[in-house]
Write a structure and sequence with these properties.
With 55 residues, the chain is mainly alpha-helical. Helices cover 51% and strands 7% of the residues. It has helices spanning 21-24, 31-54; strands at residues 4-5, 12-13. The protein has a two-stranded antiparallel sheet. Strand 1 (4-5) and strand 2 form a beta hairpin. The protein is elongated and about 40 Å long. The chain starts with a strand and ends with a helix. Bound molecules: zinc ion. Zinc ion binds at residues 6, 8-9, 11, 20, 22-23. Zinc ion (ZN) is lined by residues 6, 8-9, 11, 20, 22-23.
Length: 55
């Protein structure tokens, strides 16, 4: 799936209506911080998955 740009903040979003989750729930001010946290969380989850697969 290709990322689209949020029509509110122009950050990449996968939402079909092109409004990212942060804008939807009204956290635009915290947006950069939130995205950063989400990215970190994603990486963390991927690392955990890899470790789980390696068993
Ligand atoms: Zn947004």
């Amino acid at each position: 799936m290709k990322a689209k740009k949020c029509i509110e903040c122009e950050k990449e979003t996968y939402q079909a209506d092109q409004i990212c989750v942060a804008c939807k729930i009204g956290l635009t001010q915290m947006h950069a911080e939130l995205i950063d946290l989400l990215k970190k969380d994603k990486k963390w989850n991927l690392q955990k998955l890899k470790i789980a697969k390696m068993g």
